[in-house]
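SECTION: protein entry
WANTED: fold as tokens:
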Amino acid sequence: MREVLTAACLWFALCPRFVSGQSAPPPGAPAQMIITLGHYYGHQPPVLKQDDLVVTEQGEPLMITNLIPLRGDRAGLELFILVDNCSSCEVGSKFDELRRFIESQPLSTAIGVAYIQDGVLRVIEKPTQDRERAVKALNAPTGSKPSNPFCALTDLINGWERGSARRAVLMISNGIDPTATEDRQNPYAEAAIQAAQRAGVTVYVIYHPSADYVSTDPSQLYLGQVHLAHVASETGGEAYLLSFGPLPSLGPFLADIADHFANQYLLEFLVRPADTDALQDVTVKGKIRGIDLMAPSKARVLERGERNW
């Protein structure tokens, strides 16, 4: 009898631990990212729900805590148009298309204009809802020698004050870094990627060459495109390029970018706590057939006490 009572006492002593363990919130650090319903088949894009997504970290599924469509009262967007001054080939009509793109954006979008001049960032107009001011700040590039454009992109992101709206960059450049070599990653492009991922900034890229692209070493042109595409992909954006020459028109690609902005979500989930880095490698996939989800390769882990925008 004494042994039975002892066993019963031990069971009741341990039981609260099991109960509390079952009711305790799952361990993990809160993280978030902007995801985009990039391409879909059908007349109307589907409205995503949490159950439509799977988020994994090293193959292990993570708990999704929220999925917020960025529309209506959450549609706020700050968009910087960043133009590389060396991208000066046949720009006249294309910048007319860019001006029309600015004028067609919804009032929930604030647009800023900045330039890369000899590798240095020049902010002409901070994000504003005044379309006339944004259009007036936009001028076709006059041409200059190629210089690393990714340091200026990093400077733009790091100097951009975080507000209550999502943020994106439309970068127009040939991507050429004269110091880049084929046998290694471009550290400046990698720094820009990390800055964008930490700040939650999505980068879209339109490749546009300088006027002397025909006489430029093709390997430099190729590397520039590779680095541009890498920056866009790793931040959840997209790169638009067809060849080493200028695009025949920016219109279709600007329309595609506008469609992306109309189909973005704030995804919140829990990742395994990390001791050293505020960025965690994650993979986001959709369960719905016929859709293409775009997401950064790393998620930003929120700091203690930080509120989601």
The two ends are 62 Å apart (CA to CA). The chain has a mean pLDDT of 87.
